[in-house]
Amino acid sequence: MFIAMSMIPAGDLCGKLLTSSGLATPGFVAWSRFASGALLVLPFAPRGCLRLLKDWRIWLRASLITGGILSIQTALQTEAIADVFAAFFIGPVISYVLSVTLLRESTTPLRAILMGAGFCGVLLVVRPGFGGSANLMYAVLAGCFYGCFLTASRWLAHVGKPVELSFTQLLLSALFLLPLGLSNLPEASLSTAALTVGSATFSMLGNLLLLYAYSRSEASRLAPTVYFQLIAAVLLGWAVFDQLPDLLTWAGLLVVISAGIASASLRR
Length: 268
What we know:
Oligomer: single chain
Distance between the termini: 17 Å
Radius of gyration: 18 Å
């Protein structure tokens, strides 16, 4: 989970470099990520994995990650990567609530309080109606999609092997976004190609490792470890864009990370 949560922000960093510089649109970045990822996984996909497409739940799961990636790429086009990932972290709260209510996974009052504290940390970052950027709401929407996707990953962990689930997810998402991707093709260049491949590769590997983790543990227990993405996002934003969060965002990050670590410690 820690390796996966480092790779996913790196993929989004490549996407931000594409969209913020005007090299490509969020729609193209989202589509190319899924299409390239599907091609990378294809040689390792077991024969007959397309049988999973008969299950409507596989299509639902793919639509959730499609909406999440498109939304977060839209937010990253104008917002700092650390701010976007902090707002995005409504996702673990959504995943926690759905895992407990729909999957009937175990919980404790203290863990519920800590997840609520994490939600308050997200509000400090977004600050809806109090000076926060309107585009950060796309990051919140992405987090809602992603929280549902995390729970769906646990729900369907028994349906197929992680690589089978990864391939079908990438293939379906690429098909969903095909019209949007082809209608926004960027000018061909070495930098565009490198960033496009980097975005797809980091994202694909991160989500594949996430699937392996979710096949071995409950979603409500893994949800707090997803907060490690925040640390990676802050470091990447500082190293590449020389961007650091403002005071309220730092406070929100501290609340979110503290709540996540405390919740993770309860597993012990």
